[in-house]
Write a structure and sequence with these properties.
With 163 residues, this protein is mostly helical. It has six helices and no strands.
């Protein structure tokens, strides 16, 4: 778990919370500023884009639920505006992905951005429990390769200095 898997929620929530706190600028101006800052940094825009989805079905459903339950607010609006402007700034469309959507909704619910990895863990726990259950009761036990089949690829052996 890190920046690529699970960490994007925190980075996206921080970005959205800081953006939503900007005063005296339109939603469009704030979103444009965020995109320009991230593009200029050379870092990956957290919560946007997906290697296989061109329209993330998870995001669509989460946004429907957020609207139905009336928790969708300024962070969701900002998140969607950012996605709408990616074509202009990045010259390609970056969808709001599930991490960005969770970040926006959690932010609208008042959660601190530093809880992002917690949301990532909680949302995956039922799947992990089901996987463990299947492994314990329906699958053959996992067998690791024999030690002779494992090749070490790390740094070369070196002497440890005497104290």
């Amino acid at each position: 778990m890190g920046d690529w898997h699970g960490g994007a929620i925190e980075d996206a929530a921080k970005m959205l919370q800081e953006g939503a706190a900007v005063q005296n600028k339109s939603l469009h101006e704030v979103a444009s500023g965020i995109l320009t800052t991230w593009k200029d940094s050379g870092k990956r825009l957290p919560g946007y884009g997906h290697p296989t989805h061109t329209d993330d079905p998870r995001t669509k459903r989460l946004l429907e639920i957020a609207n139905e339950t009336k928790v969708s607010g300024q962070h969701v609006k900002l998140a969607l505006e950012i996605s709408n402007l990616t074509d202009k700034v990045y010259s390609k469309h970056l969808i709001l992905n599930v991490d960005g959507c969770i970040a926006a909704i959690a932010s609208d619910m008042g959660f601190d951005w530093r809880l992002g990895k917690g949301f990532f863990i909680v949302s995956r726990t039922p799947g992990l429990v089901a996987h463990a259950y299947e492994q314990m009761y329906f699958d053959k036990p996992y067998k690791s390769p024999h030690w002779s089949e494992i090749e070490y690829t790390g740094p070369a052996e070196r002497k440890v200095p005497e104290p």
